[in-house]
Amino acid sequence: MTTRKKSSDPVMNHDPLQGMETSAEPADDRAGLNTTSPAVEATVLDAKENVVTLGESLTIQDVAGMLETLRRLLELGGTVTLNAGELDQVDGAGIQLLCTFVKEAVNQHIEVKWVATAEKLQSAAELLGLAEVLNLSIKQAA
Prior knowledge:
Blueprint: E1 41-44, E2 49-53, E3 57-58, H1 63-76, E4 79-84, E5 89-90, H2 92-107, E6 112-117, H3 119-127
Parallel strand pairs: 2-4, 3-5, 4-6
Antiparallel strand pairs: 1-2
Helix pairs in contact: 1-2
């Protein structure tokens, strides 16, 4: 069993998504957002608000395309609205990508809003204790 020597040591010393390459050349739309992945739909409503539909799947197979889209949104600034209403599959890589994006947006003073969240995303975030990090509202008991 390995023990950490200092409590301030990071759990991970690297970003597992850093340097991730996509197999195809990204196709840029008018706003410069990568829409190569079929699960990624990104549209710009105006210069200050960007809307991204996460699609049906945000798993390790989908994060490369979404990573590029989210990076572009950080470059554009303004408000980002995430639509996860159709999300049917999400795994640890997808949750990690969303957490990293939301944290970086907060650091850059970019507001992140959710238009819709699927039950699977909400449940996964709550189970992992990340609903607050993702700015997802915790469901109230009925």
